[in-house]
Amino acid sequence: MKVLVVGSGGREHALAWKLGQSPKVTQVFVAPGNAGTATEATNIEIDASDVPALVQFATKNQIDLTVVGPEAPLVLGIVDAFEEAGLRVFGPSRAAAELEGSKVFCKNLLHTADVPTADYRTFRGSDDASRYIKDKYPEPNEPVPVVIKADGLAAGKGVIVCETRREALEAIDRIAGQKEFGDAGNELIIEERLIGQEASVLAITDGETIISLPAAQDHKPAFDGDQGPNTGGMGAYCPTPIVDEAMFERIESDVLVPVVHAMKRARKPFKGVLYAGLMLTSAGPKVLEFNVRFGDPECQPLLMRLKSDLFEVLYAAAEGKLADIGSLEWDDRPSICVVMASEGYPGSYEKGLEITGLAEADEVDDVKVFHAGTTLQDGKVVNAGGRVLGVTAIGNSISTAKLNAYTAVRKIRWQGAWCRKDISDKAIHGG
User: Fold this and answer.
1) What is the CATH number of domain 2-93?
2) What percent of the chain has pLDDT over 90?
């Protein structure tokens, strides 16, 4: 069987690596891929959003399964285009991808399905949104515990957590006034700020059967102690002890199952990865957002622990036969992914800087270095993005996995490279 993975990040490197381990897979292509995927798959110079070219390639090369990594091509309708061409593809349709493509759609669906989430209001412009904040919080110095979200895709950066009225008004202006995130800010959401710890629960579904994956915990803020601006994710670990068996069952019954049913009722049946971003509040789990693909960096530690044949699972889901797949087999040991980033991220950063020490890092026991923002330049690996590498490790305990990961991190160098130093500390120390 021949497989095509669409995308160029750490998630796609992890998918290509794991899919390539299947005895049923003879060849893995990645479009466009990165310097890491080039070492264990065949990179194809087609952009992830160039849907016609991808369909043409898959048809010509008789690809048996295409796995779409990033959200942008899913929202563009890549799955619809592949299915219309008679090609087998894993991922949600354009209509179903609206669950991530529009936060307004997502919040309204959650409300309709009676799925617990934060109270919210939606706005189509900065004037009405600003007026709402000024009316609700008339005192300039009073706390304003809200989160402002751009409606559309913003590479994980269109969510701004606010503490004061000034911060809220600035966030509204950035999103809906200055259009910092482009058309993603045509609508925006103002919602109450939830208090608790975040967790991610991903599930694979064919629209009927749901197979939930172990809970993970992402680290969105840029700096240690969850300080600084939101990013696409600075690291993750799996499983997270804050989601025990009872909580996991509650998330399945109160969140995942109702959403799959609600999407079916809305005539937007969901097939693919359903990713619930959750806040575990004192009142129970509440949904922060839904994504419609494997999370990056959650995908890396998840696949590090997966023992089952990923190809068999995704192929069955694409065929609508997920019920034929039994329980997945997992390594009992926990895993952790530490993201190494370019200096300046999540703002502007310099590209083309040579990365050294990758081979030495890969030699550390129980470590796999997944490439994200890298490319090959004159035979050398250089940085080509903000989040550059996902150094992923497994160990007999979270502490051991962390030690393995950071041992490998210390062997990797490029000018300005940095990472958070506290990935997984919440699991080790609690809170």
Assistant:
1) 3.40.50.20
2) 92
